[in-house]
Structures are given as structure tokens and as C-alpha cells.
Design a protein that fits this description.
Strand order of the largest sheet: 1-2-3-4-5-7-9-10
CATH class: Alpha Beta
CATH topology: TIM Barrel
Distance between the termini: 13 Å
Shape: globular
Strand content: 5-15%
Number of helices: 15
Number of strands: 12
Structural class: alpha/beta
CATH superfamily: Glycosidases
Number of domains: 1
Helix content: 25-40%
CATH architecture: Alpha-Beta Barrel
Radius of gyration: 21 Å
């Protein structure tokens, strides 16, 4: 692999990434309402529990633990955390606003001022250090009331609720925040709609009709947010955000290559095609036919999508996947909750996620070639069971190796001609895992002394990767040693 000297542009956006529901805690403070994430129990079985036909977002603290309720107490310790980000030299910090801090139930007409003031403080603290916020408007934290009383994104009424919410936060913060994203991993609804669309089995989590209709509603909401932003300031940049898993056919059998094409179209490209190109792709009707989906598209919907596409494509990249039509070969993989065949050419993380840096170079070329819009890697990282030694230090060379190989792949993609605007590795500070609800699945450059029950001192400690990433940023990616 060639070195990355002078490859990254001078204005490259180095930073880190988090989500409000996974680190803030303070889940009932200052008028905040419950979110969907607050109702998800912690532990490896959390998605089995929510997939039950009887699950209806009811909290049962006698039976389950809810790590999201406390998170890492970023709500009270944000100044300490942002100071650590500044010490690493972050140019940007990708975070999300908790919708239920602004509209506790989601359907109010007047926002919660205490919630708005909290994010004023967050953004001011970032700007004090010269860190630009990159804000996800909705990141797996829909107000629980909207899921329980309205049935989540399957209900078109949510378009109006989201538009009101987006208008409030964009008007409030547009002078402090230039970079926005409308939904986190919007295509995740096809695999785990509970977080992305607020759906459980009783409200359509098992129905492709409901999920695809929900996506249509989210596309409309996204376009409305783009319009609001550009009306406020044409220089604001609003992106979409998808999960991307580079997809390989199991072998050279053409039928498996067709399977890979179909997987790419349905999962990797469908949502971004609509949001980045402003229209449903050519293959959409075939998907709808095969999934027995009939979309309820109102007059003016398609015109709205066309008029207000996103400015850039943000995506998460953790792993690649392998597909085949052979059901006997197909095996369940843990990779970002996606199914796939284990790839014998790749190593995997402790959670079974296939580590594939070359797949990131392929992803960047595929996405840029398809959309010709700037790309932003807003999540990437290695979840691991870090161990704090007697000196309160973590020797996480495995994380450094992972990140180094992916940054090298980014440099090669830029050399290929890809317009890559930034990189914000996931969980730059340890936080509650979305997939398992655990603290023990750690991604951060900063260790947080809390266990899976959110017990411990909560103290922050710099890992070995902290100073390594600081050097990467200082040298603009030219020194990865």
C-alpha cells in the first residue's frame, strides 16, 4: 500500500462520531421525553426481545436493564468530553440531537426550551475549540410517543412532526452548524426497523409494505429538511446517511452475481438513490412487485423529492458481506446486524464483523461513481473488549491497526479520484452499543469506566489510540505509523 502523504485535502474533516441516545444519559432530565431507544433492553438478546409479537415498548426494570438511560452521562460531562476531543485535534464532531429533548412527545407545537439550550451549550463548547459540529437530526431516537400512538414512520403524520422539529433546530442552530444529516442509517429499516422507524411486530416491523411506505415518508421528511436548510442559508450542507456493506458474490456462478446485484440495489443503493438523485431508481418497481408493496404516493411527493435532494452522501462502513442463493451455505453473520456468508479471506472482530479495508476503497469508488457527490465516512471503527490496566491505560494496537488500514484505503480512494470530505470514526469515546446495549463493546479513543450495568466511576482515560489518532490529524493523514 502506498503512503498517503499529500493525498488528503487541506480542509479534510477529521473527527469522531457519537449518538445522543448512546452517551447523553439524563433520560428524564430538563423535560426530555422517552425515546424508542429508552425502551430497548440492554444485552445481546435485545433484538430477539423486541422481535417478539408481544413487545410494545413497555419498560420493565424488574426484568431488564436499560443502559441508554444513563449512557456515559455526557449530559453533565460534555465539557470534559469535548475538551478531550479538542486535545486530539478534532476538526469536526458528529453528534445527534435527541428529538425527545426538543419535542418530548414529538407531536407538540411548542419546543422544550431547556432541550434547545442544552445543544446551544454543546455547539458553543465545540466552537470554542474550533470544532465544527456535524449534526444528525434523527439518530435512532424517535420520541416513544410517536411510535406507540402513531405507529412510527408507517404513519404519514410523522412527516409533519419531523418537519416541525427540523424547522426548529435548523432555525435555532444554522449559524452554528453547517453540516447536517437527516436520518442515521436510513436503510437500516430493512433489517431492524424498530430503531430506524419505530416499528414493532404489532405496528408493521414484519411488513415490507409498512417499511417501504415508512421509507417514502422519511424521504419526504428529508427533502423538507433540505428545503428548510437551503432557504435559511444556501451554504448549509445537508446529507443523507446509509449503512454501506460492500457486497461480494459467493463464487463466479452468475446466479450469485445476480444475487449480489439485487442485494446492492435493495439495501446499499435504494435509499441513497432516492435521496441523492431525487427520484426512485429504475429497479424500484421490481422490488415493490416482488415484495408485494404498493406505495401510497400523494400528488406533489415525487416533485418534492426531485426538487430537494441531499448535498452529500454520508455512510457508515464497518464490514463487507458475501451473498449466495444457496440457503445451505448462507449463514447468519453478526456484521452490523446484516446476514451474510463468512468470508474466508477476511479476519473478523470479536463480534464476528468481517474486517475489510479494501472493501472501503471499493465502497468509496462505487458510491462516488454512482452519485458524483461528496462522500463523508461518518462511522467506522472496531468494537472490542478493551481492558484497562493498572496504569489506567488501554494498549489497543488492534484498533490502531484497524483504523490505519481503513485510512490507507481512504487515501487510495482519493487517489482514484473520489471526493471524500471527511472521516469521523464511530464511538470516539466509549458509549452504549446500539446493537447489544452493552458498554463492553467499546470503540473509543477514550475509555469510560462503566460496565454493562452502567456501574463504575465513569472516569475517562486516554487509550493508546488517542495519541495515535491525534498524530494522524496533526499530519493530515500522512503519518499513520
Amino acid at each position: 500500500m502506498s503512503n498517503t502523504k499529500s493525498i488528503f485535502p487541506k480542509n479534510f474533516l477529521w473527527g469522531g462520531s457519537t449518538a445522543a441516545n448512546q452517551l447523553e444519559g439524563a433520560y428524564l432530565e430538563d423535560g426530555r421525553g422517552l425515546s424508542v431507544a429508552d425502551a430497548l433492553p440492554g444485552g445481546k438478546d435485545r433484538f430477539k426481545i423486541v422481535a417478539s409479537p408481544d413487545f410494545n415498548f413497555e419498560l420493565d426494570e424488574s426484568k431488564y436493564v436499560y443502559p441508554n438511560h444513563k449512557g456515559i452521562d455526557h449530559y453533565h460531562r460534555y465539557k470534559e468530553d469535548i475538551a478531550l476531543f479538542a486535545k486530539m485535534g478534532f476538526k469536526v464532531y458528529r453528534l445527534s440531537i435527541a428529538w425527545s429533548r426538543i419535542f418530548p412527545n414529538g407531536d407538540e407545537t411548542t419546543p422544550n426550551e431547556a432541550g434547545l439550550a442544552f445543544y446551544d451549550n454543546i455547539f458553543d463548547e465545540c466552537l470554542k475549540y474550533g470544532i465544527e459540529p456535524v449534526v444528525t437530526i434523527s439518530h435512532y431516537e424517535m420520541p416513544l410517543h410517536l411510535a406507540k400512538e402513531y405507529g412510527g414512520w408507517g404513519n404519514r403524520k410523522l412527516v409533519d412532526f419531523y418537519e416541525r422539529y427540523a424547522k426548529v433546530v435548523l432555525e435555532r442552530y444554522h449559524t452554528k452548524v453547517k453540516y447536517w444529516m437527516t436520518f442515521n442509517e436510513i436503510n437500516s429499516a430493512l433489517h431492524f426497523p424498530v430503531m430506524s422507524q419505530g416499528l414493532v411486530m404489532k405496528t408493521g416491523a414484519g411488513s415490507k409494505q409498512t417499511i417501504y411506505q415508512g421509507l417514502h415518508h422519511q424521504f419526504l421528511a428529508s427533502s423538507k429538511a433540505v428545503k428548510i436548510a437551503h432557504d435559511l442559508n444556501p451554504d448549509l450542507e445537508v446529507g443523507c446517511m446509509i449503512i454501506y456493506a460492500t457486497t461480494y458474490a459467493y463464487d463466479s456462478n452468475p446466479i450469485n452475481h445476480l444475487k449480489a446485484l439485487e442485494y446492492n440495489q435493495a439495501f446499499n443503493f435504494y435509499c441513497a438513490d432516492v435521496q441523492a438523485k431525487g427520484e426512485y431508481p429504475h429497479y424500484a418497481k421490481r422490488i415493490w412487485k416482488e415484495e408485494n408493496v404498493t406505495l401510497d404516493i400523494h400528488d406533489g411527493d415525487l416533485e418534492l423529492l426531485k426538487a430537494y435532494p441531499v448535498d452529500y452522501v454520508g455512510f457508515s462502513y464497518y464490514m463487507s458481506t458475501v451473498v449466495t442463493t444457496d440457503e445451505d451455505v448462507m449463514a447468519k453473520s453478526e456484521g452490523n446486524l446484516l446476514s451474510g456468508v463468512s468470508n474466508p479471506f477476511l479476519e473478523a472482530s470479536e463480534w464476528g464483523w468481517q474486517i475489510d479495508p479494501l472493501g472501503l476503497r471499493l465502497a468509496l469508488n462505487e458510491l462516488y461513481g454512482r452519485y458524483q457527490k461528496p462522500l463523508f465516512i461518518v462511522e467506522n471503527g472496531l468494537g472490542a473488549k478493551d481492558v484497562l490496566d493498572e496504569n489506567n491505560f488501554v494498549e489497543d494496537d488492534y484498533r490502531i491497526d484497524y483504523l490505519r488500514s481503513h485510512i490507507e484505503a481512504m487515501g487510495e480512494a482519493i487517489g482514484d479520484g473520489v471526493d471524500l470530505m471527511g472521516y469521523t470514526p464511530w464511538g470516539c469515546i466509549d458509549l452504549v452499543s446500539a446493537s447489544t446495549g452493552e458498554m463492553s463493546k467499546r470503540y473509543g479513543f477514550i475509555y469510560v469506566d462503566l460496565d454493562d450495568n452502567i456501574e463504575g466511576s465513569g472516569d475517562r482515560y486516554e487509550k493508546k489510540s488517542f495519541n495515535w489518532y491525534k498524530k494522524v490529524i496533526e499530519t493530515n493523514g500522512s503519518d499513520l505509523a
